[in-house]
Specification:
The protein is α/β, with parallel strands linked by helices and about 290 residues long. The relative contact order is 0.13. It has 2 domains: about 240 residues, Spore Coat Polysaccharide Biosynthesis Protein SpsA, Chain A (Alpha-Beta Complex); about 35 residues. About 40% of the residues lie in helices and about 20% in strands. Pfam families: Glycos_transf_2.
Length: about 290
């Protein structure tokens, strides 16, 4: 392809071929103006067969096994940045192997939104949490809360990641910040805060959904395991000088009382949300 693709779908893979295959199947059939890049940081290149099986149906697919091509794994943040640097599309969507597009019209609706003459620099997609059997559990957070934080209080993301996974954002390539590889736990929300404050045009495409599979293995959370509390605390301290206006949500001691009030409000919101979800499920169809 000589012209730049409309969209680059970027998949950082690590020892979870099942998740990569699920993404491939959910995206097919794909328009020829969409490219797919899979950079595999796994010790062994066990996804090569899977990629070969799908290659004939993808006009623009690139797979790289980092340890074989580069002499060693890159690590999560560097792998994500390598995908962004290699992307050629006008827009980028970074989708991890425990995420997936939802709905048969996902690609066609996304393409229509990106080709509209009023297309924004950042498109915010809805997030649905899924169990291991891919059954919907609930929405990540209410849409009004996500949108309010993005527009008015991005620093709150350091307290609650209400945006969700990276797959919920489609960003014009030249505006997609690079991840800070020195971070492990707050690596995505730190980027989100910078992106929210970059003065870009955002748009929420209601009903266009990505699923986030709530797995206990193969995730960053699982890999950090018992170190999570220590790593989270250390990263918050390190980020305070860079984000002085967000010290409250980064855990500065002076904000303890306000965070306690926020915790009560957050738990109350969750209770109301769960009750509403049960009510809607039990409501008889007319």
């Amino acid at each position: 392809m000589t012209d730049a693709p409309l969209l680059s779908v970027l998949v950082p893979a690590y020892e979870y071929a099942e998740g990569v295959e699920r993404i491939l199947q959910a995206l097919e059939p794909l328009s020829p103006d969409v490219e797919l890049l899979i950079f595999d940081d796994s010790p062994a290149p066990d996804m090569a067969g899977l990629i070969e099986a799908h290659a004939s149906r993808w006009p623009d697919l690139r797979y790289r096994h980092n340890p074989s091509a580069l002499g060693g794994p890159l690590g999560a943040g560097n792998n994500w940045n390598a995908l962004l640097d290699a992307a050629r599309g006008r827009y980028c969507l970074l989708m991890h192997h425990d995420e997936m597009p939802l709905g048969r019209e996902f690609c066609s609706r996304l393409r229509a939104a990106l080709t509209d003459r009023t297309a924004p620099e950042v498109l915010l997609l809805d997030v649905v949490l899924l169990d291991g059997a891919l059954r919907p559990l609930r929405r990540h957070v209410p849409a009004w809360l996500r949108w309010s934080v993005v527009r008015y209080a991005p620093g709150y993301l350091f307290r609650r990641n209400v945006i969700g996974p990276t797959a919920s954002l489609v960003v014009r390539r030249e505006h997609f910040p690079r991840f800070d590889p020195s971070l492990r736990w707050l690596i995505d929300v730190e980027l989100y805060v910078r992106l929210c404050r970059a003065g870009l045009r955002w748009q929420r495409l209601a009903g266009l959904e990505v699923g986030s599979i709530q797995r206990s293995d193969g995730t960053i959370t699982a890999s950090l395991s018992g170190e999570l509390h220590r790593i989270d605390a250390a990263e918050r301290v390190a980020l305070r000088p860079r984000f002085p206006r967000d010290r409250l949500w980064l855990g500065a001691p002076v904000g303890g009382a306000l965070r306690a009030v926020e915790q009560v409000l957050w738990l109350s919101l969750r209770v109301v949300e769960r009750a509403w979800t049960r009510l809607v499920r039990l409501k008889p169809r007319s």
